[in-house]
Amino acid sequence: MPDGLAARLTTSLCRLRGTDHLRPRCAALGGQVGQRVRCGIYEWRPSPCREFDAGSDACLHARRQHGLERAA
Ligand code: SF4
After folding, report:
1. What is the SS3 assignment for 1?
2. Backbone angles phi, psi at 60, to 5 degrees
3. Which residues line ligand 1 (CB under 6 A)?
4. What are the structural domain ranges in the chain?
């Protein structure tokens, strides 16, 4: 993962910058939310990103925080 994208929380745990904001937006996300976006590090994205399910409760929560009511 490129330097600067992750903030270290503990010696073994990092968080992608921007994902803890009130309206979360990962520093690796390119494009315009609600229009068209893409992960800038897709091939190297961490395991939580690989395990995140579109349409899950967490997904729908994040969408609501951006004013997007419907599931993708
Ligand atoms: S999939 Fe990519 S843009 Fe989305 S949170 Fe993970 S690293 Fe960030």
Report:
1. coil
2. -65, -35
3. 16, 26, 28-29, 39, 41, 45, 49
4. 6-65
In the chain, which ranges are E strands?
6-8, 14-16, 29-32, 36-39
CA distance readout (Å), 6 to 12, 22, 27, 48, 71: 12, 17, 8, 13, 27
pLDDT surpassing 80 at residue 31: yes
The pTM score is 0.83
Indicate the pLDDT class of residue 71, thresholds 50, 70 and 90. low
From the CB of residue 36, how many other CB atoms can be counted at a distance below 10 Å? 8
Q: How far is the CA of 11 from the centre of ligand 1 (A)?
A: 21
